[in-house]
Amino acid sequence: MKPRTKRTDVLGVVFLLAAGVMWSLNGALIKLINDEGQGPGGVVIAFYRSLFAGLVLLPLARGKLHTLARGKNHEHRPGIALHRAVLQLRPAAILCVVFFTLMTVAFVVANTQTEAANAILLQYTSTFWVFGLSPWVLKERPQRRVMYILLIALVGIGVIFAGNASTDLAGLLIALCAGLFFALLSLMIRLMRDCNSAAITVLNNLGSALLILPLVLLIDGLWVSQRSLLLLILLGVVQFGIPYYLYTLGLARVPTYSAILLVMIEPVLVPIWAYLAVGETVPTTTVIGGSIILLALVMSVLSSRSSVPK
């Protein structure tokens, strides 16, 4: 049994690293699709990304949608129809879709208005939003040392804003909002921890596409060029859909604190892909501020690890 456990752990690490690498393609692909404002806008990109991700993951949620329904007896209704599951969604599931939609739109739009490195680093501030909101939402009060780590992260955010605010303040603020919405989404998923993860992911993606659709029709319409469509499929399936599934598989094999550290390969690789794809350089203040934020993230993960009973 020992060799099997070791092999399973290695497989989990591979799944998580693969998820982080695939997630890191977001900035480069979004910028290639947007083509400096000549391609689809951020809202259209967000719509297609969620749509294609939801469709590719839909088979994994087959027979699991009943876990999203209201009531304590939802586990006894595996045959519940799709339309009934939607009508009986618990409030946290509805909020999940709303926050997921706001997060997706904010992150994609931020990538069209500021450097990819800024967007991903500021979205990673979601960890610290969770620290601040957990006492009210989950009744989980963080330890005092966590607050000191949060102050370090705020210094990093301040450095990024100080070096970029004169050129893309709107993009920075939108990216920061993406982090807030990601934190709120995480809190709602935490409240729904008895639900099937594939069902939640599919609901978030397809529900998000449905909410964004009226805005897309109002602003730009659904038409995109063949080049953009191919990149959008790549974005939705390879960058968004498959890595979420790999992340779920990895979490089943690797402790959460280790998983978070492994997927931190994402913000490291994002500026590299953006540079290779569109020649985007990273401002010095972003490197400094981002390093401070990543340091705070590592400290927070190690802190939570040390507090776990042996």
Descriptive account of the structure:
There is one protein chain. It is built from 13 helices and no strands. It is mainly alpha-helical and 310 residues long. The chain has a domain at 91-191 and 280-310. The two termini are 22 Å apart. The relative contact order is 0.21. The model is unreliable at 1-8 and 72-76 (pLDDT under 50).
Task: Round the Cα radius of gyration to an integer and report it.
Answer: 19 Å
Query: Which range does the strand content fall in?
Result: under 5%
Put simply, the count of helices is 13
Q: Which stretches are poorly predicted, pLDDT < 50 over at least 5 residues?
A: 1-8, 72-76
Short summary of the structure?
The chain is mainly α. It has 13 helices and no strands.
Keywords:
310 residues, mainly alpha, 13 helices
Q: Helix and strand layout, with pairings?
A:
Layout: H1 2-23, H2 26-34, H3 42-57, H4 82-87, H5 91-113, H6 116-123, H7 126-137, H8 144-191, H9 197-219, H10 226-251, H11 256-262, H12 265-278, H13 284-306
Helix pairs in contact: 1-10, 2-6, 2-10, 2-12, 3-5, 3-9, 3-10, 5-6, 5-8, 5-9, 6-8, 6-12, 6-13, 7-8, 8-13, 11-13
